[in-house]
Design goal:
This protein is α/β, with parallel strands linked by helices and 676 residues long. The chain has 23 helices and 28 strands. The two termini are 45 Å apart.
């Protein structure tokens, strides 16, 4: 039996705080559960009335019904919830939904009440959803454990919702219903004191009728378990994730890596790495789930999209949106173009996108030709309703297309809505605007791409040196560790005083860099602790006079000029070690130009990180700059990833990592933080 069946597949239910008084939470919940086919026991400790079916305790209700409840739905105040749940567990209940608020979300006594619920979970094994949630919906079981009006009208379907918020759960359920998608299970987690996103995703992984999952995340309790659950689920059904908290800057560490790796960015990166499709708002979430709930492309690195449009302007909007997001809209083969030329007017464009001029009787054949082209994996068709020219729904459902279709239907509201419903019932995802269609197509393509990457994943085993170090670690020691990992560092000398610094200058010749060597100072430039371009002894004396007092000095041979990157790994409290690759200079912080991965990295993950930077062209030879050696950069990322396997390491950062004229990389500065 699934661990959460007592919640989402109960045989009997008890409502704590059940009431016949309109307007009360217990009354609304009891009414919502009226369609449930099993026993619904009403428990009201304050006003028991057995003759009317209201009992003082769960035990009394179970005795009267001849069976214990699997699920108790608590609609009573926070202060008395824990004791009532403990009594319910003793009477045989195995799952509980706690709807009331007033727990940890309000602080103070509320946190005490929530801790009491946690103790009940620990002592009894009761699985608790909530507290502070409007509940869940399982339409195929006629189970509406929700007090939200209209929730009972949600029809069964193939899509599940796992939302941090009960309100978001219901909002998405209604929006999906409007889009023609029924619901398999819709869950609002609330405070997630016991049941988390990972628990529900693991439950859904065993549901053979499921076709897609909408995941709404505010915070992640156990990041690794969440990503493992997503990855397992993605093997069978797509997961579309919306992560809240774009403006969160979190508690960052003392270096740039921490500032770049906010919880929002890390959560998104971790979910994408696990195989989820990422969206930016609830509208895109509904569009993406609507498409993936009906269609899933085979796994492949880069799917090609064919476009057929009966109106050129909207077709160009769709084309532009896709290409701007990196989706391939490839030219059709000459054979396909020739066949289209026999079906369409000569003045229309026929190489992709394909402009039909107007909807016509040949639309079905045009769609079939485009969908059959070897470069095409999914075909989008845009059309305004023109019934006198062609029945759009009939034309598309009649197409014998070897690859999936996505439709975009415009026209008078009622007729367009009916056409979209017909197409949806036929298994064709259907949008009302080019922007929504582009979101659907991008979701299909991204899902295919991430699964292709997951299939090729080969995690590099840790190979980091055993660190016999004590905190704090200075720059020279940090660079020595990097050298041992095969990462290039500048030729340097540790100097105890000014005289030794002058000797190092004679040894290296100019130009050199002089730095204070003090493990307590992580950002040396901010205190004047770095002086560059020193060629003579006079310049060295002047530089030393400007620098703060330090236990020692570090003299390094200057590296040639070149583009710069930031590379780092830090231990995130939720997801563990997280790798960051960012643009050098101010771009990483001011533009947020950073790629993130959860460590350990695979070779493919490490190689792909550079391509995610908005400024990636600058590191690939743009404007005459030295292009980075991708193999060397991949090695640096994998080396730091392996370093993170050492539990003593909390953070390691190379900033900057300079690209040399030969494409190799050199770590000009390094920070290594260990557990105290």
């Amino acid at each position: 039996m699934n661990a959460l069946d007592s919640l989402f597949a109960p045989g009997a239910i008890a409502v704590l705080g059940a009431s016949a008084t309109p307007g009360k939470l217990g009354a609304a919940m009891t009414d919502s559960l009226a369609s449930f086919p099993g026993p619904v026991m009403k428990v009201n400790a304050g006003r028991p009335d057995p003759d009317r079916g209201y009992f003082a305790t769960v035990a009394d209700a179970a005795a009267a019904h001849g069976t214990p409840p699997d699920l108790v739905v608590s609609c009573i105040p926070a202060a008395v919830t824990a004791d009532a749940l403990r009594e319910a567990a003793a009477a045989g209940a195995r799952g509980a939904l706690v709807c009331a608020g007033g727990f940890a979300e309000v602080g103070g006594e509320g946190a005490v009440y929530q801790q009491a619920v946690t103790e009940v979970v620990r002592d009894t094994g009761l699985r608790v959803l909530g507290p502070n949630t409007s509940g869940f919906i399982a339409p195929h079981r006629w189970l509406t454990a929700s007090f939200v009006p209209g929730a009972a009208d949600i029809v069964p379907g193939p899509v599940a919702i796992v939302a941090a918020s009960g309100g978001v759960n219901h909002a998405l359920a209604f929006a999906l219903a409007e889009a023609g998608m029924g619901l398999r299970l819709g869950v609002g987690l609330g405070n997630s004191e016991d049941v988390t996103q990972a628990d529900v995703l693991e439950h859904l992984a065993e549901d053979e009728e499921l076709r897609a999952v909408a995941l709404h995340v505010e915070t992640a309790v156990d990041g690794r378990r969440l990503t493992e659950a997503v990855r397992r689920l993605v093997e069978r059904v797509p997961v579309v994730a919306l992560v809240v908290g774009r403006s969160d800057i979190g508690e960052f560490a003392r270096s740039h890596t921490g500032a770049l790796a906010t919880s929002w960015r890390v959560t998104r990166a971790a979910l994408r790495q696990a195989g989820a499709v990422l969206v930016d708002d609830e509208r895109d979430l509904v569009d993406a789930v609507t498409a993936l709930g009906r269609v899933r492309l085979p796994a492949r690195p880069s799917a090609g999209v064919g476009l057929v449009t009966a109106q050129a302007g909207p077709g160009l909007l769709l084309t532009d949106n896709l290409r701007a997001h990196g989706v391939r809209v490839p030219p059709l083969t000459e054979r396909t173009v020739k066949e289209l030329g026999e079906l369409l007017p000569a003045l229309t464009y026929q190489r992709n996108p394909v402009d039909t001029g107007r909807p016509s009787a040949t639309l079905t054949q045009v769609v079939e030709r485009v969908a059959t082209d070897p470069a095409i994996d999914v075909t989008a068709v845009y059309g305004l309703l023109e019934p006198t020219a062609v029945d759009l729904a009939a034309a598309l459902t009649a197409a014998c297309a070897p690859t999936p279709l996505v439709a975009v239907v415009g026209g008078p509201a009622e007729q367009a809505r009916e056409t979209r419903r017909e197409l949806g019932d036929a298994g064709i995802p259907c949008a009302s605007t080019p922007a929504s269609a582009a979101t659907m197509i991008r979701a299909l393509v991204e899902d295919a791409t991430v699964r292709s990457r997951l299939e090729a994943t080969d995690i590099t085993p840790p190979g980091a040196p055993a660190l016999a170090l004590t905190a704090p670690v200075d720059e020279h020691t940090a660079k020595s560790v990097l050298t041992e990992l095969g990462i290039r560092t500048p030729v340097r000398r540790v100097c105890a005083d000014r005289a030794e610094a002058h000797t190092a200058l004679d040894e290296f010749g100019g130009p050199v860099v002089v730095k204070i060597l003090d493990a307590a100072v992580l950002h040396k430039t901010e205190v004047g602790g770095v002086q560059v371009g020193i060629r003579t002894h006079e310049e060295l004396d002047a530089a030393l006079a400007r620098m703060p007092v330090s236990p020692a000095l570090l003299v390094e041979r200057m590296a040639p000029a070149g583009p710069e990157l930031i590379v780092g790994v830090r231990r995130d409290p939720v997801f563990g070690p997280v790798m960051a690759l960012g643009a050098g200079g101010t771009a990483a912080e001011t533009l947020g130009d950073v790629a993130l991965r959860v460590a350990p990295l695979s070779m493919n993950d490490a190689y792909a990180m550079l391509d995610e930077l908005a400024t990636s062209d600058l590191y690939l030879g743009a404007r005459g700059a030295a292009p980075v050696d991708r193999a060397r950069l991949t090695h640096v990322l994998l080396a730091l990833s392996s370093l993170a396997a050492d539990q003593a390491v909390t953070e390691c950062e190379i900033n900057p990592l300079r690209i040399l004229p030969d494409g190799d990389l050199v770590a000009l500065d390094a920070v290594l933080l260990l557990r105290d």
